[in-house]
Every structure is written in structure tokens, then in C-alpha cells.
Amino acid sequence: MDIRVVPLPVDKMKTKITEQSQLGFGKYFTDRMLVVDWKADQGWYDARIEPYAPFVLDPSCAVFHYAQEIFEGLKAYKWADGRVALFRPEMNARRFNQSGDRICMPEVPEELFLDGIHTLVSLERDWIPTAPGTSLYIRPAMIAVEPVLGVHPSNHFYFFVILSPVGAYYAAGFKPINIMVEDHYVRAVPGGTGEAKTGGNYASSLKAGLEAKKKGYDQVLWLDGRERSYIEEVGAMNMFFAYGSHIVTAPLSGSILSGVTRDSVLKLAPTLGYTVEECPINVNELMADIRSGKVTEAFGSGTAAVITPVGKLCYKDECLQLTGGNVGDITQRLYDTLTGIQTGKLNDEFGWVSFVE
Ligand code: COI
Q1: Is pTM, for the whole model, over 0.90?
Q2: Based on the structure, what is the number of domains in the chain?
Q3: Which residue's CA is the nearest one to ligand 1's atom 5?
């Protein structure tokens, strides 16, 4: 599909943030966005890149009432030689459509998803920050815009992509975070929407997150919704635990997100001499293994969070420190290797990187 590029008037061009250490996460947006319409009787049409601006939407739109919405997250990196790299964008395209299928949204052809991102990022390449730990975060999303209050799949959607120059997801940067295991609220249940990247999952996590923050934790770690005994994920990250050089993570049970970074860690870790295993992780056994020193490190993985070390894990009344509250060697190596591949400092043996023309 042709993508029309609407001219960007000079007075709509924003001032770029020059102090890259101040970027934070998701606070600034570039000059342009991609928008494509879909209607039941027309399919996808009118793909255009237009100046970044608010949408004008009818208050009755389905997205506002019934949360028919999905999104993705990936990043573009500007390499030292000036090339612009994307990391495994086809994985995001596939997961986007799996999420959409779960909540009855039309499939976005992979070619449209990828061409749209390539064209937009290419036009906005001057926005890509280059300081260590920074990148251009790409947020594709789809919303239901049919103005009607009946509960049924919408017959009109917008697929859109916005871009945000970002630094670290957690304000403290690459530092160990403290995590509270949530034993009251649940994020997802078998058969629910837990593995879809849909806004409702994040809305329903806010209360637990806020309560955890008040108690001094950075994030909550969700348990399975049926027995509340097995580790699932931390909203913005999948979780890994190292038993010496053996690294375990929860299996894709249907109620956790199939993370692109999770998959990359599972493939990368064996090349660094570690063994990996996807297996159910019982929270009581995990706490006992941290207490006895069998678990030596814990970290989270995610596009926004990259690899994030865990300093403390707290469950019920017990708080256990990991790796002496420092960044563990495995965590550091995985972070360095992954970001090395993403930024062109290390060889990409996996063929994960593609370039924007
Ligand atoms: C990502 O890592 O890209 C995510 O979508 C997590 C997010 C909620 C910031």
C-alpha cells in the first residue's frame, strides 16, 4: 500500500531535546505519526504520515467504553556509522496481530506494519538520540473508532504509529529495582487476555502498582490467577532467575506476554555459556532458593526495560536481597551483549537487526 506523506509545516516542527540524559521514558514525541484507517467494507485504506497531532474522536467510540485497543513497543537505534537499526520488528508485527485476533481487530498485513515503521522512522531519523542507553521508542497501536455504544467488534479502526526519543524506562537507569510479589490482585487468568498486548491488562494493573509504590517498591510481580502460586510476569517485563549459570523463566502459559526480549535472552544466554529453562516457578520454592543462596541473580526483560536487575524480592512479610543489592554478572553480560547487538557494537550472529533506508 502506498503511504502518503503529508507535508510538515515549519511551524509544526518541534524543538528537539538536546539534553539526552533528561529524556526519561515516553515524554516527548516526534513531529510526525503514521495513521491508517480500516473499515469493514473497505479494508485498510489511506495510509498517511501526517504531522503529530491529537485525534478528534467521537465520545461514543468503542475504544473509550470497551477498551478495544492493542499496542506494541520496539526501538530504533542510530549506529555510530549513521545507519538506523531496528531489532526484530517482524516479531512485533506478529504479536500485534495475535493480540488483535484475541480482541477481534482486523489483521494488519505484516508488510504494512513494517513499511509504515520504516518510512516513518526514516523521515524522523534526526530524532533518534545517540547517548548510551537512549533510543527511539516506536509505539504502534490500534484503536476502535466506530461511534456506537453496542458491545460488538468495531467496524472502524485506526492503526497508528508514534515515536518517542527515550532513555531508561526506570528513572534510576540500569540499577537494581525492588519488586513486590502481588498476592491479592491478579493480572490475568487462563483463557483471559493476559498474553495480548491490550490496554485493559495495563489498566487493571495500576491499582496494585500504586499500592506497591506507596510501600516503596518499583514494580509488582504477578502470580498466576488460579492458584496464586506461580510466577508470571512484571507488567512491563518478563522475569528470569539465575541458579548459578542456569537461568529459568516462566513458560508461555497463555496468561503472560510472549516478550521479544524474553525470546532474545533465551537464545542469547546459551551462546554466553549459560543454560536456560522455561518451567513453572513456584513462589514459595523461589523464596526458599533465594534465602538459601541457590538463586544468585534475578532480572527482568522487556523492550522498554531492556534487561533490568532486581535488587530485592518481597513476598508477604519477607524481603530478600539478591546479589547483595548489586547488578549480577549474568545480568550485566546479557545487558551488554543485547544492547551491543542492538547498537552495532557487537556482531549480530542471529540476524536480528534490520536497517531503515
Ligand atoms: C515495552 O516494553 O515496549 C512495553 O510495551 C512495556 C510498556 C508498558 C512500557
Answers
A1: yes
A2: 2
A3: 73
**pLDDT digit string, tens, across residues 328-357:** 999 999 999 999 999 999 999 999 999 999
* Cβ atoms < 10 Å from Cβ of 335: 19
- CA-to-CA distance for 244 and 328, rounded, in angstroms? 11
Q: Which residue has the cell 498485513?
A: 109
pLDDT of residue 21: 87
CA-nearest residue for atom 6, ligand 1, is 236
What is the per-residue pLDDT for 276? Answer: 98
**Which atom of ligand 1 is closest in space to residue 139's alpha carbon?**
3
For residue 225 and ligand 1, the question of a CB distance below 6 A is answered with no
- Give the pLDDT confidence score for residue 209 in this predicted structure: 97
**208 is written with which cell numbers?**
496494585
8 Å CB contact between 234 and 300: yes
Rounded to an integer, what distance in angstroms lies between the CA atom of residue 325 and that of residue 178? 9
Q: Is residue 352 part of a domain?
A: no
Residue 64 neighbours by CB under 8 Å, 6+ apart: 57
Do 299 and 266 lie in a common domain? yes
On whether both 253 and 325 belong to a single domain, the answer is yes
- Domain range for 140: 4-166
Write out residues in the chain with pLDDT < 50, as ranges: none
Q: Is residue 186 part of a domain?
A: yes
In a domain, 172, yes or no: no
**Is the minimum distance from the CB of 304 to ligand 1 under 6 angstroms?**
yes
Burial of residue 99 (number of CB atoms within 10 Å: 0-12, 13-18, 19+): buried
Looking at the structure, tell me whether residues 135 and 227 fall in a common domain. no
Distance, CA 220 to ligand 1 centroid (Å)? 15
**Placement of cell 549480577 in the chain:** 328
CB proximity list for 14: less than 8 A, separation 6 or greater:
29, 30, 31, 52
Q: Across the strands, what pairs with 243?
A: 246
pLDDT score, position 245: 98
Q: What is the pLDDT of residue 235?
A: 83
Residue 172 has a pLDDT of: 87
Q: If you ran DSSP here, which 8-state letter would residue 220 be given?
A: E
pLDDT of residue 18: 86
Residue 236 Cβ contacting ligand 1 at under 6 Å: yes
